[in-house]
């Protein structure tokens, strides 16, 4: 009897990364501390908020993003990525806005799932 074919998971984030290069990624300092994020990847956004280095500028690009947007990317902070990174979902409104900014086609709603660009 043949084995059932292995399940293949399509992850559009791995050849995208647009949301990591479109927005300021800010969150409470307390979260940065609890995640153990090093100071080298952070900037001060307000007395209470940190942001990921590289995202607080007119052409944002998180310093943790490796690779080429729209080609092949990974996140060097994946295990420690903060809540804004975990909240965006492939195919949601923020994803569509980021992909549009980088000239990438919108994903169908059926492709919506948690962002795993790292
Ligand atoms: S959530 Fe959307 S914009 Fe972000 S990496 Fe995934 S596909 Fe790209
Ligand atoms: S998922 Fe990784 S590369 Fe993208 S913004 Fe968050 S920390 Fe930066």
Structure description:
By secondary structure, the chain is of the alpha+beta class. The chain has one domain. Helices cover 18% and strands 19% of the residues. A three-stranded antiparallel β-sheet has the order 1-3-2. Strands 4-5 form a two-stranded antiparallel sheet. The N and C termini lie far apart (37 Å). One iron/sulfur cluster binds next to loops.
Strand content: 15-25%
Present as ligands are: iron/sulfur cluster
Strand order of the largest sheet: 1-3-2
> What's the number of extended β-strand segments?
7
pLDDT averaged over residues: 89
The gyration radius over C-alpha positions equals: 16 Å
**Continuous helix count:** 3
Cα end-to-end separation: 37 Å
Structural class: alpha+beta
Order of helices and strands: EHEEEEHEHE
Helix content: 10-25%
Low-confidence blocks of residues = none
Q: What global shape is seen?
A: globular
